[in-house]
Request: fold
Amino acid sequence: MEKAKKGIITRNEAEELRKLLEKQKKEKEESGDIVGAILLGLAILFVLWLLTKLTKPSKK
Reply:
């Protein structure tokens, strides 16, 4: 997440982070930790947003 905040994350790293967060979210849901699952869901949305930024060509 630190690399994401600094804007130095690669597309592959973002994909791996998304997969890891989705796995953790599923574990939270299965254990009944709804708040944790919601927070991880928000983190996943952030990573998806990063992926869209990484895949769009820059407008220069």
Q: What stands out?
A: The CA atoms of residues 20 and 44 lie 9 Å apart.
